Protein 1
Amino acid sequence: MPDTFTLRVITPESIAVDTAASSVRFPGLDGLMGVLPHHAPMVAALDAGALTWTEGGVEKEMFVSGGFAEVRGDTVRVVTEASEPASAIDVERARRAAERARERLRRRGRGGQGPGEKVEEIDLLRAQAALRRALQRLKVAEHKR
Amino acid sequence: MAGIKELRLRITSVGNIKQITRAMEMVATTKLRRFQDRATSSRPYAEEITALVGRLAAMLGEGVEDRPLFRAGKGEKTLALVVTSDRGLCGAYNSNLLKMIEAWRADLGRPVDYLVYGRKGFGYMNKRDFEIKSYLQEPPLEQIDYRSAALVGRILVEDFLSGEYRDVVLITTRFQSMVKYVPQIVPFLPIRGETLADGGGEAQSKSLEGGVILEPDAESIFERLLPRYLETRVFNALLEALASEYASRRFAMKNATDAATDMQNALRGVYNRKRQETITKELLDIVGGAEAIQ
């Protein structure tokens, strides 16, 4: 029973994936979520991480930088700002990005908590998000090997 | 009347200019196509995000309108993002937009701060009494990608939320077709409920009514969705402005090339007539001389 649904990964630059998949897993905010055919309608917010799907018995993986997944009818749409197949990930760049983010967090840790500094708080959140994205990219890239 | 030699020189120089304008026309055509393609391929994303926002807003109901992003700010001022071109020779592209801004702010009756994209707009506004909050040049407009457009969007949102402004508008040129591009002032923030309802579409909002699983919950999804929605709008506005710029430049260069052709023809006519005249005169001289000898 080749029971499949349409999986579409949509980014601002292109439609990155448009295929028939028999299962998909994506990084929900509260952890990994899986969808099989005939799933109930759903809208989920995504974290940065690996999007994995099975296409004709073959497992495929790609990095998504957060976004949303929507299950409606027999279509799963993943709407994300950036997506990269594992092979296209620039490991060196991701590593540098991780290092930068770590450095920023470290400096911030030493500086102590500025009282009510909203800007700094945003910076902190951004650095954390950047670190998470970079680490997830690396993880996806390493899986491939 | 210019001499034959001068005429010949002018014909050549008009020809040279024509070559340049024709080359520029062709460059503008390819660039136009590129930005149009990008605008087209960004559309599914924009549509998907807009639809999601519309449907979630419908689900959340009345409470939506109480969010800070949906309410006019406390401030008195308006913040405007102005998109012009970095380079000239694009017809009335910039002047149309700037003329519209002048008219708009004249009857707005509120101070306006401007974020300016594009050297031409900055050059104009900087010399006059515009309050330029910042001049965006990194990355250059032509190399815009989603990420940097999102950054611009984030600046607008943060400034709006700081409470300094009452509202935020985008002043850009909308691309309607290859020959139609109109400067427009579009309200950006606060988000208006109606605009969301449009994007959602009726059939789709219905499908969300009955038991859709929301992970983690409508509130947090909506919270994450709104910034994406706003970023997409900025990205689209920038791409459309770029497409308009090149459409306008292509048109201007085409006109210039045509005008050069006309001029060349006219000059060539004069030149030929002159040449003929000289030859006739010389012939008459010779004939006259020969007759005198006989």
Protein 2
Amino acid sequence: MYTSITEEERREMLRKIGVSSIDELFADIPAGISMDGPVNLPGGLGEMELLAHMEELAGMNHGPRAFIGAGGYSHYIPALVDHLSSRSEFYTSYTPYQAEVSQGTLVAIFEYQTMIARLCGTDIANASMYDGATATAEAAFMAMRSNGRKRIVVSSALHPHYREVLKTYAWASDSVIDEVPLREGVTDIESLRERLDDSVACVIVQSPNFLGAIEDSATIAGAVHSSGAILVACVTEPMSLGLLRPPGALGADIVCGEGQAFGNPVGFGGPMLGFLAAQKDFMRRMPGRLVGKTVDAAGQDAYVLTLQAREQHIRRDRATSNICTNQGLCALRAVLYLSIMGGVLRNLAALNHRRASYFRHRLLSKGFAAAGDAPYFNEFVVRHPRAMDIRDALMDRGMPLGLPLGGYYPDMRDCLLLCVTELDTVERMDRYISEIEAVQ
Amino acid sequence: MDTIFDYSVSGKNRFQLPEAGCEDYDPIPEEYCTVATVLPEVSEVEVVRHYTNLSRMNFGVDNGMYPLGSCTMKYNPKINEKIAAMEGFSAIHPLADASAVQGCLRVLYELAAALREITGMTFSLCPAAGSHGELSGAMIIKKYFQDLKEARSVVLIPDSAHGTNPASVAMCGFTVKEIPSNSDGDVDVERLRQLLDGNVAAMMLTSPNTLGLFDRNIREISRLLRENGSLFYGDGANLNATAGRARMADMGFDIMHTNLHKTFSTPHGGGGPGSGPVGVVDRLAKYLPVPLVAKGAQGYYLEYDRPDSIGRVHSFYGNFLVALRAYAYIRSLGAEGIRDMSDTAVLNANYLLACLRDLYKLPIDRKCMHEFVISDGDMPNGVTTNDISKRILDYGFHSPTVYFPLHIEGAIMIEPTETETKKSMDTFVNAMAEIRREAYEEPEKVKTAPRNTPVHRVDAVIAARKPVLVWEG
Amino acid sequence: MSSIPDDLRYSKDHEWVRMEDEFNGVCGITDHAQEMLTDIVFVELPQVDMEVGVREQVAVVESVKAVSDVYSPVSGRIIGVNTQLEESPELINDDPYGKGWIFKIEVKHPKELEDLMDAAAYSEYVESGA
């Protein structure tokens, strides 16, 4: 328990208030609603008992990393990220409404906005969103607000969960979604062209896509823009931006996605770090928080939440979105990560790709087949007639392997999606290869 | 003020990566690759110093009293941070097989069960923030009437509501109609009667309301809505007065959301991440966003087979590491502790109210729940709420929430939470008395505050007129 | 007390119109309105050639703390907008009846002007706290 009013203080306070008991303070709650007894929960635990209980629960999660990415990426987190983000001036503060005592958070977010905009090749970025899926839905809404159109065209290689969230949001706002099929593991550009007309608000394409393949974004951008639609580029593995050309430079108008890989643990899927970046024409249609540079009364540099008139607390039912928080602490972790890794991000991304290519190469030599020949970053799909049996056998040996794709794409029941990061050493991959040989 | 970019010099970064240990078997074609360096190149010690110094320009709950009304800035127990950092939780992949993540699933299952005991509702923990829970709730309203084949397009929202309420329902295509509050701060029931017709899908009410009052007409309101076939949505963002005292379901609400980062003490993180579970009464449970966590013969599992669900609202299952902290908090408090939390929060708020009532204007004079509102209504010399809030910073406290709720002019909304000690509250009262004296005798001191903060009063107008949103060197 | 020039007509939504001839008017928001809004930071201007009805929303004026719709006091066609406000929205604060004008309108039914308030009536309206 974390309260600290003593009995004597309580009596004194009640006297000051002018009541004789705490129950009197609750007199406005009608009888019949007011509870008679305590809530039905177990008794409280002291810190030592709590720790033991939580260690037991943590122990029920087991198994090493399973070469799964698919929207959540396990990367090494430098020690300073945990250390600095644990400073309680950062994590016990609120949204920086009182700028004079929030410059730490505000400067960090301003830096975050800058880093994300640069990596995305856009003019601006906001202070972050809940996660990649909702950032993508908000990107689509922003596009619809810009051009007044109501149809969203989306690649089938956008993360299946993102497509589901998009479907939920689109249903709620009475807009229409149209999915473009795949061809050899990438978005079918001819089929996309056929869908484009002046009713299309935006086209959403993920690259590297859910299957790991790098899309031909420049060609897609040309097709999308010729119909007057907006190109929304989605990135779920931001590490790829260390190596690949920024989506904005390839013609994306809005760039959104998941920033978790930058300094945040996978954490069973949350909190994640949605990001949303765009060219400057979208500035006043952007949902979420924005930090801007200004001066204080003494004329020195200062930072402040800005363009708030777009937001719910002022514009209410006509706001650009209902969102009122960002993922402040996750964005801070991303800034810390990119500050220390910024100079080597390209090498780190290259390392991810190289290790992935090694695992793929070895698997292809053990009877697995490639699924498409598009270039990839650190994720790829392999096919094997007995893929699920092999996976089960490895699982029994405590070596989980990859994500089965049959649940997402019915024609990919014999496929596994695999992700390799800098945490997966050549030795680890070699051990897997030997076991795969052994179980075949 | 330096940003991290100001330290950047090419070649300064010495972070050492491991050797790949293999060749590149499938080089990415050059036309896909970038050549530009866009991130700062700084040394490790510069990173550490820069962010350590930035942190010193922030004010958190650990620095001092943070009476920010409606935000519930309570102490965040350190043990919960230690728990959230355990690799057995933080390094677990959301798409790993269910058999390998039984501990995570059990935490989610048990937390939803505890929230059910506290509120009487069934929860989905997927929404990532209060406004996200609210949006999910608005979607449930839409789906419910779609299934009934009733075209109801209006949602009633009191003038005292948070801006997220109208914004969330507008995203679902509803039209908002505002209901005024009466002079006691309760909903104007007569006006509600007039507004109710076959087009009203729901009413949203914050409980306790944003004046920190428990609406005494709540039974009448819920009866009127039920008779009209409308749903009653409870904004339970803040349960810090009612948890252990009264259940949202018993108040007559059909749908609610609650913010784990308020009542259940997970850190606000400078603006997130939060968590905003959405809860419903049993007859609406089929609409909750997927997945829910269920328990079967093989253990816990993610339940997707819910054909009436509004669908998925999050990349995965919501903010797990936030839910984990909330679960740990509920376990450490237990049944008695939760009631003590609410009792102390209400006691503290009423004590502060009693101490401040003679110093500042009190727009509505009633016993409050966990928070209350005063105003600048009788301040001399043109001293405004904004001036008072800035001057409070000089005395070493965070400011209260200001200019909210909107229907109270110059509102100053104060919520001490159960965290504050009598001593810290008495010090705050002395500061407020001193500020009042200054307003009369030395108004310039108040109007030009703050002075004792890392920067002086920040010019929000320049920022908005000529937005600079990225570092330009 | 805010300034209320005698030669203008005023709407209940705190817009003014100055007729340049029988059919062409200039519109903006009143001194009282800009005082209530405080420092204006952004103006969303209407499209030229747009047809508007009486009290139809044509522009949006934003301050740091508030956002306010601007309605057309009369029906007609928008024939010009003050593009200077894009760079300098503060003109509305500094000179609401002059350099801070927002749009020009070709009035469809000049009789509608009679429904607007004159300076004396608007002054009373403002004082009544509306």
